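Structure ticket #2291
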Amino acid sequence: MITGGTGTGAAALADPNTSEARSHRISELMGAVSFRGKIYLGARRYPRARIYEYDPSREWRLGVNPKEVRNGDAVLGDRPAIGTVNKSGYLGGQLLFHNPRTGRTEIHDKLIKDQSIMSPAYRNAVLYAGTSVYGGYGAAETQTDARLIAWDVEKGRKLWEKTPVPGERTVPSLSFYRQGGLWGATAGVVFRYDHCRFAIRRYTPYNWPQDGGYALADLAFRKRGGHLYGSMPGVGLYRLDPRTWKMTVITDRPVYRMALHPDGRLFANDGAELLAPPRAAEPA
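Resolution: structure written out below.
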């Protein structure tokens, strides 16, 4: 698995079975998605964003592997979907569809006035994405409510936009629950969108900053046990029963990001420390 860092920027390639890790220099990694054996890395390299394609079966050689496939201002079907934040001093963002076979990137911008595209989730030819009112550092936000948008992948057009939780400035994570509704998380709230309606539960207060506030929560559905797992400021790492909305805190350490491994294990980070509970200690 790959985990990134901010500040000077780095990527750590960690083996979840042996706990061994190798570190490589790269820009600040803000997100990653696996697709057909490759890993696409979203990196923040001031003042512009970079998208890299990495083949984990080959030696790490920055510029060659991973190689840059998109240099701009700021997984579905046969191509991954990527959301971006604008460059420093500017609001807005783009929705990108990258075709690995042709190397071309389809770009859609100005989907939501002065908002960034943060968290794609795909089902049945529709791409859903949460947004953020924040742009590049130094850009004064003009909006107060983050949105949820739906995008028709086949027709290439926006179907609708809605405000899931008034006052929440970023929707950084979305996840589908089995065949049910779409779940999302913000810095203090979990919500569900189903049959054109929102159900909302606030678990902790959060004061949004004036400049920046992007990757503040993660959420993922875990098939084994049928629960949602997430990270949230002021809460830590938690398990959520989607039937009762009961939240159980796994650790109250100030977890910043969380990831669900394909084998069902949970990984999270507290500062520079990667947390990986033993398989035997994993909750059902």
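Closing remark: The first strand starts at residue 2 and ends at 5.
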